[in-house]
Amino acid sequence: MTKVAASAAAAVADITSGSSLAVGGFGLCGIPDALIDALAAREVTDLEVISNNCGTDAHGLGILLADKRIRRITASYVGENSEFARQYLAGELEVELTPQGTLAEKLRAGGAGIPAFFTPAGVGSPVADGGLPWRYAADGSVAVASPAKEVRTFGGGWGERRYVLEEALTADFALVHARIGDTEGNLVFEKSARNFNPLAAMAGRCCIAQVEYLVPAGDLDPARIHLPGVFVDRVVHTGPQLKHIEKRTVAQEQSA
CA-CA distance, 175 to 40, in Å (whole number)? Predict the structure, then answer.
């Protein structure tokens, strides 16, 4: 058996409508763009996505969003995607906004087999108390709101603090991008791409990784491996990634 897929299309061939996806990347950094493009080329819809954000209008998950392929998304921010905001406010998309650190830990916990954990993030806000709009109705009213979560107090004396219970996240498939991978699925991520990619990979029951450089098993220094191949089911060599800038900001030249 081999973990190497012949193409991005072959790697995502068994993702069906209604599947849940944990997708790596941050903004447009380290996104599995080739896998997303291959999925967009198929008639797959009604997807439930877990990702830090939803790309931009023309890149990443924004392509699937624009085609109305995504039914629900769990994310930490809307980002620069105007279509994301429009669909959410129009009641066309269900959105569970989650504190960014909590989202990362929910994915990590899911991959580690931990069903839930307590965190102070969100206590005293609608994150814990409930009432966050998950889906709007066409008239602008809230059709689906977040439920209240369990809050408990831990510690004593000056160390007493309230914490909210957050459930872990898992998905049917994980789509991730890595700088280097070997034929056994061991992955090395590049700088900022190391943020959500390993966590998404761990949370997917079937993890599909696109890699810029594919090397034989044994070529990677074990100390350099960021994610062991036990978490990865398929690897596809997609070559160097074209880097996109989500929001370009440049300094104005100062006159003398």
Answer: 13
Angle of CA points 183, 186, 187, to nearest 5°: 115
Residues 20-34 have pLDDT tens digits of: 999 999 877 889 999
Residues 40 and 55 sit within 8 Å (Cβ to Cβ) = no
Q: At residue 131, what is the residue type?
A: G
**88 near 95, Cβ under 8 Å?**
yes
Q: Which residues contact 227 (CB under 8 A, 6 or more apart)?
A: 178, 186, 187, 189, 197, 198, 201, 202
* Pair of tokens at residue 152: 């408990």
Give the 3-state secondary structure of residue 154: strand
- Give the tens place of pLDDT for each residue, 123-158: 999 999 999 999 999 899 999 999 999 999 998 778
Is 114 strand, coil or helix? coil
Q: Helix count (H) and strand count (E) of the chain?
A: 7, 13
Separation of alpha carbons 121 and 127, rounded Å: 8
pTM over 0.90: yes
* 3-class secondary structure, 134: strand
17 and 172 Cβ atoms separated by less than 8 Å: no
CA–CA separation, 80 vs 62, rounded Å?
10
Spatial CA neighbour of 75 closest among 55, 44, 57, 98: 98
